[in-house]
Amino acid sequence: MTTNTEIMTKPAAHTWWWYGLLLLATIGILTVYQEVLDVYEVSILIFTAISMAMVGNKWPGFRGHSIAVAILSLIALQLYGSDLGAAETNGVLKYMLASQSAIMWMSVFFIAATFTYFGGLIFRSSYTEKVGSAFTWIATTFGMTGLMVRWRETHMMGADIGYIPVSNLYEVFILFAVVTALIYLFYERRYQVRSLGGFVLLVISAAVIFQLWYAFERNAHEIQPLVPALQSYWMKIHVPANFIGYGAFAMAAMIGIAYLLVSWRANKNPDSGLVKAMPPLTMMDDLMYKSIALGFAFFTVATILGALWAAEAWGGYWSWDPKETWALIVWLNYAAWLHMRMTKGWNGVPMAWWAIVGLFVTLFAFLGVNMFLSGLHSYGSL
Amino acid sequence: MSDATKKGPSSLSFTRRLLLFIGSMELAITLLLTLAIASVIGTVLQQNQPYADYVIKFGPYWFDVFDKLGLYDVYSALWFVAILALLVISTSVCVIRHFPAMTKEMWQLRTNVQKKSLKAMHHNAQWQSNNTLQTVANNLQQEFKNLGFRSRQTVKQEDAILISAMRGGMNRLGYLFTHIAIVVICVGGLFDSNMPLKLAEWRGDIKIETRDLSIREIPAESRLGEGNQGFRGSVSIPEGKASEVVFLPVRDGYLLQALPFRIEVKDFRIEHYPNGQPKSFESDLVIHDDELDAPMEATIAVNHPLIYRGHAIYQASFSDGGSILSLDAWPLDSRAGTEPVSIQTKVFENRQMLWGEESMQLEMIDFRPFNINPDPTEDDSRNVRDFGPNFTFKLRTQTGEAREYENYMFPVERDGREYFLSGVRNTPSESFAYLYLPVDEDGSLNRFLQYSALLRDQQLVSSIANSMMIEALAMLPERDESLEESLQQTLETLIKMFVRGGFDEVRDFIDNNLPDAERDNLAPAYLGMLREMLARIYFSMDGIDAETVSNEQLLFLQDTVDSIGTLSRYGSPVFLHLTDFEHIQSTGLQIAKAPGKNVVYFGCALLVIGIFLLFYLPQRRFWAWLEQENGQTNIILAGSTNRNAREFDTFFNEQRTQLAAKTGNSNL
């Protein structure tokens, strides 16, 4: 294995300004909102700052992204003032920073990035692939900004309406796109491979297209107040943790597809262009394992948080509700996958297929349960 | 992890082989996947529904088969619990078997390796230093320490020194934590499950009650005393009332669980957002308990339960608590009288009514003080409006058939006109079909009823038919008595048919009784005659005149005729109009006691810590073999990891350069 990796390590020392900035931002938020934040929300805020400090410590891109989101969101908030109507009258909001506009830009850039990545792969142009990365970063920044601004917009809808915009199916689709992209970008930098970008962006684009359909066809983007069962600080941790899990599983499945494609080509013709352009099979296999491990860790946390929330809202930490049960099914499936991989040493084609099947199981837990089954967790219906 | 199992199986005893099988990875993975697939059943088939619904759905044969398989409560079915138990046993055996090796791996630095095996390792490097053996050894140990590695020197034969170093031994703790966590969670969950109840049921100590009884009538064998067992049940308590029991749903029945305290409900509140969506559900409770000096007051809301003496009290639902309703029964059929009759009743009350000759049982089901529903007159279903109070009831005939009705207190506006709205349906699975009763200028049903009575007034109908017949036949050159008689009769019959069965009956008559050849010509004529008659009867009313009739009056006629035309399908001889109410609500509480909860939470914490240790704390080892050679110190460095081999490549390459430089490398 050659070291095409000047990657990782050698961080620290230089990122004190990053910690300082986060500290400042945390103190700022606590000062401005001290009246309305309860102890749980303060804890979540501090926990978020610490997580961001850790992630940003080794990852300059994340620092830039976070700062860009913060600046854009603050500009939007400034332009809004306290008038929700500014979304129509102010040009910057209307065409760029109002949550709907930002989310549209996100959609455009994600889809553009998909084509660009594949273009780069087909024409073996590393420059084009870099443009793909840039597009993905821009899309992610717009998506995150859209969510942040929407958070503010929910509060401008009226007293007591405000909520964190990860509360309905429309909003979590945006979250899914952003989180999956961030996970991908992290590994893209770490492994210095861009040729998987198109594959991962494919699942993000699918989510984006669904989200567009959902908005245009069903007006799902309109802000509706939360039902009482969802008014809880648990929302702020349960949902994001879940979507790190979903995003990582989705990425693993897309790498699985790439793996199968490459291994199929390599069997026919080891010198084929695709095989040469794509990362080595062992690397994809490793990456697949990494993202399933990441997904599994966060999905476990999310499911436990869900149980804790259920104990507070539904009267029991486990009710065998369809959503809970499907979360368990997803968990068992990946637990079996990881055992196969870690102790039985299975790898390659069967594990790639299994990762793809895993995505369908996950997809059913995420969407199918809401569409076809009824239960306590019937929050995002189509 | 499984090298211990690789001994020849034939030499092992049966018990040992069984243990090996139970603790094997193959079985564990099979169980994980079996459990996943089995869990699907309970999400596809709705659990714990009324058994009658299952019979309807599957038919008696399959109902029985599925019942035997326990599919209606699959997560406590014997076979499902057995799979779960087997998984726990398998995991336990696995942990017990690997425990010694894992703890050893966690701490031991592996000092008994040979120079040869180091050279054979995937990651290895070699260099020379001009420093003395001991200096290099101490240097290396210091460097390893700086890297966070624990290390030890061992003197080998021929004065060689082996330094064994390790970091991340806690990775092995991750294995132990995750697997022990599964066992802990399942055992904790068992405390809170309904397994103890199932056992008691098998032993015959308790019996599931399936009848609808009042609390006093419930037999002792269906009652559970206060105890330490976990449970989860619900109870509905009307405002101002109290309860010291809770119902535990079990399959198609329930058990009654006693509480060690009494819960009184002072008040139940719903708050709404401006768009009508509910914003919060809250109940003011008072806990009465001998252990308390004074009753304890508390307010619960969704997501904010009250925890009292290990019992968690949740706001789960709400319903009517027996609201008092004042009704006016307006006769729709003159046989039921001509004046409205006042009744006072309560939700959940059943009473026998005699309307005309018809005797019916009035069963009040529900009352709602407001109904924020999509506006049926707007296309966009998100435009909601408040339709005001309504109540739901059933009318049961003496043969036992019942129809369900839903009546609104206030008239509803449609196209600028106002109507009393009453929905009717035959079974709960249908949606309501609505009767629109037109409201007159006074906001009452008087005019509608007057008109409806006129249609039944034989004399009036007869005289109007007569004058219409004379006008119609006036153009004929000479009188034809038989024609006169037949026309007179036709006109009267049309009204009779209309009163009996609306336009439907008239159309049936036309379809069935008129000769095919003439039907197309005569049908419009018949309907025209009926309309003319209906209008003439209307114009005979006080204050309405054919010459000066206003557009509103004509529309009123049209609405009246439309609704009388559908009355035959309405099935009630009266329209019940709500005139006043006193709203009494009932709050639905869910009460749970989960003694195993903290055990489960502890297991969850173990699981999370374990998973992160397992994935993100790789166990890395270094060995350095130092020996004297030609006045120099020869250093062989080797490394290994149990996770993330790819990162370790980079790490090893970096470290070998670093270490070589630090130990005074002379030749790399």
TrEMBL record, chain A:
Q: How does it sit in the membrane?
A: Multi-pass membrane protein
- Residue stretches spanning the membrane: 16-33, 64-82, 102-124, 131-149, 169-187, 199-216, 243-266, 287-311, 352-373
Q: Which UniProt keywords apply?
A: Cytochrome c-type biogenesis, Membrane, Transmembrane, Transmembrane helix
What InterPro entries does the record tag this protein with? Cyt_c_assembly, Cyt_c_biogenesis_CcsA, Cyt_c_biogenesis_CcsA/CcmC
Cellular-component GO terms for this entry: plasma membrane
Q: Which range is the signal sequence, renumbered to this chain?
A: none
* GO biological process assignments: cytochrome complex assembly
Any GO MF annotation of the entry: heme binding
Q: Which subcellular locations apply to this protein? A: Membrane
Q: Which residues form the Cytochrome c assembly protein domain?
A: 166-377
Identify the main location. membrane
Annotated protein name in UniProt: Cytochrome c biogenesis protein CcsA
Its gene name is ccsA
Automatic annotation (TrEMBL), chain B:
Task: Determine if Transmembrane helix is one of this entry's keywords.
Answer: yes
Predominant location category = membrane
Q: What stretch or stretches form a coiled coil here?
A: none
Query: Could you mention a single GO BP entry for this protein?
Result: cytochrome complex assembly
List, for all copies, the residue spans of the domain called ResB-like: 25-652
Tell whether Transmembrane is among the UniProt keywords: yes
Which UniProt keywords are given for this protein, alphabetically ordered? Cytochrome c-type biogenesis, Membrane, Transmembrane, Transmembrane helix
Transmembrane stretches, start-end: 20-45, 77-96, 173-191, 599-617
* Entry's localization field: Membrane
This protein's GO cellular component annotations are:
membrane
One Pfam family name is ResB
Topology with regard to the membrane?
A: Multi-pass membrane protein
PANTHER family recorded: CYTOCHROME C BIOGENESIS PROTEIN CCS1, CHLOROPLASTIC
Q: What is this protein called?
A: Cytochrome c biogenesis protein CcsB
Gene that this sequence comes from: ccsB
